[in-house]
Design goal:
alpha+beta, 5-stranded mixed sheet, globular
Length: 490
């Protein structure tokens, strides 16, 4: 059948109508192909995301991607098509083949949107040969042994943060504990990995100097799924058309800190930049890798610690249970256990990680040439697949009353095999968060010191409200209003 047979008779004699008709027919043909004949047309889901990626771009931008897709799983099951070539999976059994086995599948190209200053980072690169020497150079710094050797310095950061929280609690004004938690996170990262304290806990303003820098990278998550060329053009346009003086100032402060850090790091130094320079990286890339650490190390850990403080303030019975455990341990003398060995403290930290949603959305990877088959569902090569912490952590079958803070569910005699499989706070496999040991140590030690010092005694949410913290569900979540507040009575 010739094209003119598909066109209305009068369109043949009107060039403008022909010009309009041709793309309309092509669009219709593409839509029919995607909906009926595409290799993943057998994966269920609503019609619009089967036809266009704009559906996914929209929900990522407005910040409700994770919860929207979670509702689709409730309707369609554990496998849902969320764009023409992407499948979201809520089955914990898929974690191993996608992220763990033989190093897991390759990351999707959209991770390039998290490149910094034109450089791939240990996090953003999709090339394992690029990542391996860089990760190998620094990975020992995140080991339990390395962290323990620097225990006094990290505890020093914790104690300064606790002192600041106590000072602000006495003012009688609402205290933004997200801001304070971030101050610890950036200080711990800089002290342990850079061997130079950023000293954020000493800042007295309402917002940390590093926060706008961090938030700018968090906001990249609005456009995470865009092709990198489109993202780069959009980013340039936003910087030119909608300049933000506060963000620019924060960027300058962080740039100056990193510039001084890298410039003053001598040859043979064993800190983070020194180890990267030792494998021959240019200083510009070393700076980018350091900035990536400041962003990632500050944002997620800050959110998680703020969640712990808020939940303990809202749940006085759980606060008292934890306080009793910690005080009993503190009085045990030579029998005192390490904080990470205490069952209720561990339960509190893990439950906060489950519900905080510091990283709520999918971790997209590409199905390799062999394809993926799970639960009698076959997904062809080249398809982008991903699993989100949101769908796993809020699965009511695995976690009854999933939105409630119930640390007891993580006590040794209560943990089920499914709970362990579904815990996805740091990802999984060789591309899981490289700094998870340091992040967990910060959370344990900070919670320990806060509760031993009874810092949260009398703390409550402003107005006594217990509404959940509203977030933008980007790759790294962003708290709406940029505040998680507590106020101290009396």
């Amino acid at each position: 059948m010739a094209l003119h047979d598909l066109l209305p008779g009068n369109a043949i004699n009107h060039p403008l109508l022909t010009i309009l008709a041709i793309p309309t027919i092509l669009l219709l043909a593409r839509s029919i192909y995607r909906a009926i004949f595409h290799p993943i047309s057998h994966i269920p889901g609503p019609l619009v995301p089967k036809l266009t990626s704009l559906w996914l771009y929209y929900h990522a931008y407005i910040g409700d991607e994770a919860s929207t897709i979670h509702k689709l799983h409730e309707q369609y099951g554990p496998y849902v098509r969320v764009s023409p070539n992407e499948v979201d999976i809520s089955d914990a059994e898929a974690i191993a083949p996608i992220y763990v086995t033989r190093g897991g599948f390759t990351k999707a190209p959209c991770y390039a949107n998290f490149d910094i200053d034109g450089h791939k980072t240990i996090f953003s690169t999709t090339d394992m040969d690029y990542r391996k020497p860089r990760a190998t150079a620094v990975v020992s710094m995140f080991s339990t042994k390395s962290i323990r050797e620097n225990e006094a310095a990290i505890y020093g950061c914790v104690d300064r943060m606790v002192s600041r929280m106590q000072e602000e609690a006495k003012t009688g004004r609402p205290v933004n504990i997200l801001n304070i938690a971030r101050s610890l996170a950036v200080d711990a990262v800089s002290t342990h990995l850079f061997q130079e304290n950023y000293n954020a806990t000493a800042e007295k303003g309402n917002r940390l100097s590093v926060s706008a820098f961090v938030d700018a990278f968090v906001a990249v998550g609005r456009f995470f799924y865009l092709p990198n060329t489109a993202f780069t053009c959009l980013e340039w346009a936003l910087e030119k058309l909608v300049p933000d003086e506060h963000t620019a100032t924060s960027m300058e402060v962080v740039d100056k800190f990193v510039d001084n850090l890298v410039s003053s790091t001598p040859k043979g130094a064993t800190n983070y930049p020194g180890r990267l320079m030792a494998i021959g990286l240019e200083r510009s890339e070393v700076k980018a890798q350091c900035k990536d650490l400041i962003f990632a190390g500050t944002d997620s850990t800050g959110m998680n610690l703020a969640t712990i403080c808020r939940q303990l303030a809202l749940n006085s019975d759980k606060y008292e249970t934890l306080r009793t455990e910690l005080l009993t341990n503190a009085q045990a003398g030579e029998s005192r256990q390490d904080a990470q060995s205490l069952p209720y403290l561990s339960a509190v930290v893990k439950e906060a990680l489950r519900i905080s949603m510091a990283n709520p959305t999918r971790l997209p990877h590409i199905v390799p040439p062999a394809g993926l088959t799970l639960s009698n569902i076959t997904i062809p090569p080249g398809t982008i697949v991903g699993i989100s912490a949101y769908s796993l952590h809020f699965n009511p079958t695995v976690f009854p009353s999933p939105h409630s803070f119930i640390p007891e569910r993580w006590l040794p005699d209560q943990v089920t095999e499914e709970m362990g499989k579904s815990f996805f706070a740091f990802g999984a496999g060789s591309r899981a968060c490289i700094a998870r040991n340091l992040a967990m140590t910060e959370l344990y030690w900070a919670t320990e010191r806060i509760v031993e010092g009874d810092v949260l005694n009398g703390a409550r949410t402003p107005g006594g409200k217990e509404e959940k913290v509203e977030i933008y569900e980007w790759f790294n979540s962003s708290v709406k209003g940029e505040k998680i507040e507590l106020v101290w009575e009396g």
